[in-house]
Amino acid sequence: MKAAGITEPSDIDSLRREVARLREELERPGHPQRSQTLVGGEPNVQLQQVLQEQAQETQGLNEALRAERDLYINLNTQE
Asked: Which of 23, 41, 48, 59 gives 35 a disulfide partner, CB atoms 3.0 to 4.6 angstroms apart?
């Protein structure tokens, strides 16, 4: 059972793999760019900005999880 606020290393690794898979899928040649069209055919830069912000937030959360994991490991090894 996980304590509140504690994330298992396997959860972090799983998130990393999923983010990497999604990035590769988006960067693959021939992948349709979702930001190019919207209903009506107008460019949708706003969606691209939201996606970028979400990617940055995911990176920040991953860094926070890594720091929390390191802190937890350090606390447990000092006992």
From this structure: 48
